[in-house]
Amino acid sequence: HSFLVGYTWENINKKKAKETIAKFDTVAKVDAALADLRKYWDTLLGNYTLDSGDEKLDRMVNIWNQYQCMVTFCFSRSASFFESGIGRGMGFRDSNQDLVGFVHQIPERARERIIDIASTQFPDGGCYHQYQPLTKRGNNDIGGGFNDDPLWLILGTISYIKETGDFGILQEQVPFDNDWSVARSLFDHLSVSFDHVIKNLGPHGLPLIGRADWNDCLNLNCFSNDPNESFQTAENKSEGTKAESVMIAGMFVIYGQDYIELCKRLGKTEEAARAQKHVDAMTVAVKKYGWDGEWFVRAYDYYGNKIGSRENEEGKIFIESQGWCTMAAIGKEEGMCHKSLDAVKERLDTKYGIVLNNPAFTKYYIEYGEISSYPPGYKENAGIFCHNNPWIMIGETVIGRGEQAWEYYKKICPAYLEDISDLHKTEPYVYSQMVAGKDAFKPGEAKNSWLTGTAAWNYYAITQFILGIKP
Ligand code: BGC
Ligand code: NOJ
């Protein structure tokens, strides 16, 4: 037997439905269609094939992790068991990151996505945080001001070029805020992305954070008295802010270097030299003001006080700045990267993965925002974010500790968690956004599977850094 389940919106005379049914009205037709479908996926997922001798690893890399990357590319963070639906739209930051796990699958669709995303950028390099996939317009409700956003466009575009060699994409004319009268080349969009950071530096020469960086819940200019207020959209106090992000600084060094390399390949030597000066200055600023002695500081708050420092009582160390500054190899020669990653091992590593910060926040800090409103051990308050664990894996490969990277990989990789499925709870073949951390009620319990940047980052870490196969 075969059962047919379908849907059509032209249901008055059932014409469409009948046509579809006719395509599958014998077992032979169904078998043939299924064979075609299998072939489609085998071909698509076969673009990257690993034969490692480790059955679990092969299963993740060859099938499930890639499949999840396809799903996140298609659905972004829209309606699901965990996310609130089209209100979120396509994230500027999220969609660029999703590309690193997808670009080798269907590069033409990645190309189109890059142009769509870039079309929502503002002429000064800032961007709408989200856009709606149908209208392709930026979301006014949430607006912009997330100062990490522009840099992700450099990651998305460069990943695409590395995979395809299609430098032609850089010549595409792309509007700003969907206004064709101010269209410029995609390359120029990357330049304004780069410049947006240097035009928004704080008192230590580090990037101002704006509403938040990758961590939606580190809202250093929000100052909300009302827990029902949307922390991300509110900025109650930003005049004269000193809130800077060391994470964005690390990102700037990495994607700034990629931008420089791109300029050199395009023969733009003056632009490369100009950019190099800014990247060098950022590296100096991180070493001077972003180093806490044993690890990298996370941020400076509105008043200019350190966050993620031994000076703090709670939130002494955060994963993001350790990940980005070690991926950027900042202070590698001076031993900073080794120290930083040793501190991660000592203070953030657990049986189930690396927690986001430690100690967890136990009370609300108005100057930190939403992060301190979550229960300890969950979400951005010391949960194990499977999205940023790969940053540490990659950092470990930068200092040559591949074995440690592999250990971290296995800790959160679903195929290796089958034996603890009763605790872990989500599908043993899909990455979750987070796993409850050591301070939680039930450490090891996972939440928010499927629609998360975790898919792309783990795929990127295992294929390009742990296995070391780079396009
Ligand atoms: C995300 C969380 C984030 C929250 C911010 C959710 O949809 O899953 O990671 O903390 O939005 O408001
Ligand atoms: C989920 C959001 O979609 C993403 O943009 C953000 O970086 C993470 N949460 C961490 O806060």
Describe the protein.
By secondary structure, this protein is mainly α. It is built from 15 helices and 14 strands. The strands form 6 sheets. It has a 3-stranded antiparallel β-sheet. It has a 3-stranded antiparallel β-sheet with strand order 12-13-14, with no helix packed on it. A hairpin with a 2-residue loop joins β9 and β10. The model has no long low-confidence stretch (mean pLDDT 96).
Which terms summarize this structure?
single chain; about 475 residues; mainly alpha; binds 1-deoxynojirimycin
Looking across the biggest beta sheet, what order are the strands in? Answer: 5-6-7
Sequence stretches where pLDDT stays below 50 over 5 or more residues: none
Query: What summary fits the major beta sheet?
Result: 3 strands, antiparallel
Report mean pLDDT, rounded to a whole number.
Answer: 96
- Distinct small-molecule ligands in the complex: beta-D-glucopyranose, 1-deoxynojirimycin
End-to-end Cα distance, whole Å, is: 46 Å
Overall geometry: globular
Report the sheet-strand fraction.
Answer: 5-15%
Q: How many beta strands in the DSSP annotation?
A: 14
* Structural Rg: 23 Å
Short characterization:
The chain has 471 residues and is mostly helical. The chain has 15 helices and 14 strands. A three-stranded antiparallel beta sheet has the order 5-6-7. Strands 12-13-14 form a three-stranded antiparallel beta sheet, with no helix packed on it. Strands 1-2 form a two-stranded antiparallel sheet.
